[in-house]
Amino acid sequence: MEDFKYNFVNITSFRLVDIGDVAVKQILKDIKNYGHHIYQSPDFSQHSRKSFSFESEPALMYDSVFVFAMGLQTLEQSHILDIYNVTCDEEIPWNGGLSLINYLNAVEWKGLTGPIQFKEGQRIQFKLDLIKLKQHSIVKVGEWTPHGHLNITDPSMFFDSGSMNVTLVVITILETPYVMMHYGKNFTGNERFYGFCVDILETISHEVGFGYILDLVPDRKYGAKDPESGEWNGMVAQLMQYKADLAVGSMTITYARESVIDFTKPFMNLGISILFKVPTSEPTRLFSFMNPLAIEIWIYVLMAYFLVSICIYLVGKLSPIEWKYINPCDLNNITIGNQFTLSDSFWFTIGTLMQQSPDIYPRAISTRIISSIWGFFSLIIVASYTANLAAFLTTERMINPIENAEDLASQTEISYGTLDSGSTMTFFRDSMIETYKKMWRSMDNKKPSAFTTTYEDGIRRVNQGNYAYLMESTMLDYIVQRDCNLTQIGGLLDTKGYGIATPKGSPWRDKISLAILELQEKGEIQMLYDKWWKNTDETCTRKSPSKQSKANALGLESIGGVFVVLFAGIIVAVAVALFEFWFNFRYNYKAKPLSFSNSLPPDARIVLETNERTYLQPKRCFWIEIFEELRYASWCLNKPKRPELNRVCSKCKITSKPII
């Protein structure tokens, strides 16, 4: 093999004789010494000192002779051997042949070719050494047995770091925007694929110095371990079986995967997040101006208004300072009054709350204390209401049923799921956090409807509504920037990274890791990220809440309730005015005495002056009185006073009683 050692020739072979075994070494040493003593040849001796090779056929012959001798020796202990010459001309078998075959099948011995044991004439329990040619020697890299098959003990020996013009087999999986595919007939080979990871792979191949053949993984899965059978699938299985040299894509570095394959340094950091449909805007209510304060606060304020009004009324009655003389100069009719009547107390309280100046001013210390405390209370309530009013009227509020993973786990109306056989599924399955364990039980009970085969299926279900999709944040960011109907809920549930996967012991891992670190320091990976994630031609225009609040003007739907309150107050005031006018007309309005002219006879005037006079109430119409009042109001718009109207008609009757 001297001619092949230094030319990077890849030679792999199986070896039956384990030359590293102690017993084999002793046998080979005896054979070498035997040859040295039997053949007194200087050439043989010189050749044996340089190197000693032992082929498989002599080893099999050596073991065969020993097995035959051991079987014959055992046969001789139980039978008398009758040996005679046999001939091929006559078909006369040897009588001890069948017994010898049985004893040979029972032989168990360790020879040059390893453990020797037979079953029904076939050799079992043997092994073959897998060897490779290296520059220094032939080295053992694994074993093969009939039951365990191939077991590679040193995978690094299959990769020669000094080789040039190496073409690696790279497997991937289609995932937008990491790896995408052209389906046209004009694209062949590696030209079929494009995307973020394809650009990274192309850059790394130039940095490290290798070629590659890019192809899709057969089962279209990243790789997860079956908890029942323990078998891996997807790209992980392809690397474990050495069917590929690299696996490139949005493949997450996890503990389970790292235990069976190797990963490079992460070229992208990410975490699990929740993809959800953008919540609908809260419908604008007519009485939105009441939103700054909760309904219970409005009730408490109303109760406080009634309580303070009644307290002012009672305290005003109890305090002697609030009582004053009405006509202090009229000594014959001394009358005292109080300004805090029940109606005036309510008017004073509401005027203070509305920050108006009522015409009633408390004079007693007790009433002033209540008035001050109520003024302070009104100041705080009005200031708090005013501060929140602008935010509630100008900011568009969203009805969001979930805010984080805890909200998602504690409800049953919104379904949720993740990608099947992915790292996100493994995270929830193996998590020890109670919230995530609860979410996994929910998803596992709804299997397979909770899981999707591709990200596209999950995004489609989210757009249909009432479904949340658990996915990696980088992919979620790509989708959200292109679909303004979708949004991210909450923060990251964990922290992890994407890496390029290699088989165990691959020398390409360290070289690619160094290349990734160099690309990160140069900012080339960030430029590729901006190229595929933030392309302005593909991203949608999402309204910013801060900008939207500045640009939006208040519409009638926001403050229309104020106009409703205004018109309702006007209607109530008119109704109360009509009631007051009716009450005054019906009960309090008396007929006025008639003014008689001087044309009447003197005796008549005397009789009228001396006799008892009784005036009958005229039969007037209520609506006519209202009409007369409105007509005067329309004629005398600027007059604060009016003369008292003489409502006298021809039907007025005067009855007199003569004095006896």
UniProtKB/TrEMBL annotation:
Residues annotated as transmembrane: 297-316, 373-393, 559-583
Domain Ionotropic glutamate receptor L-glutamate and glycine-binding: 177-241
Protein name according to UniProt: Glutamate receptor ionotropic, kainate 2 isoform X2
Homology family: Belongs to the glutamate-gated ion channel (TC 1.A.10.1) family.
Sequence ranges assigned to domain Ionotropic glutamate receptor C-terminal in this UniProt record: 167-535
Subcellular location(s) of the protein: Cell membrane; Postsynaptic cell membrane
Biological source species: Drosophila kikkawai (Fruit fly)
SUPFAM superfamilies found in the cross-reference section: Periplasmic binding protein-like I, Periplasmic binding protein-like II, Voltage-gated potassium channels
Keyword flag Kinase: no
SMART domains: Lig_chan-Glu_bd, PBPe
Pfam families with a match to the protein in the record: ANF_receptor, Lig_chan, Lig_chan-Glu_bd
Biological classification of the source: Eukaryota, Metazoa, Ecdysozoa, Arthropoda, Hexapoda
InterPro entries: ANF_lig-bd_rcpt, Glu/Gly-bd, Iono_Glu_rcpt_met, Ionotropic_Glu_rcpt, Iontro_rcpt_C, Peripla_BP_I
Keyword Signal recorded: no
Superkingdom of origin: Eukaryota
Membrane topology, from the record: Multi-pass membrane protein
Gene3D superfamilies: 1.10.287.70, 3.40.50.2300, Periplasmic binding protein-like II
Gene coding for it: Ekar
PANTHER family: IONOTROPIC GLUTAMATE RECEPTOR (PTHR18966)
Chief subcellular location: membrane
Keyword annotations: Cell membrane, Glycoprotein, Ion channel, Ion transport, Ligand-gated ion channel, Membrane, Postsynaptic cell membrane, Receptor, Synapse, Transmembrane, Transmembrane helix, Transport
Coiled-coil features, chain-numbered ranges: none
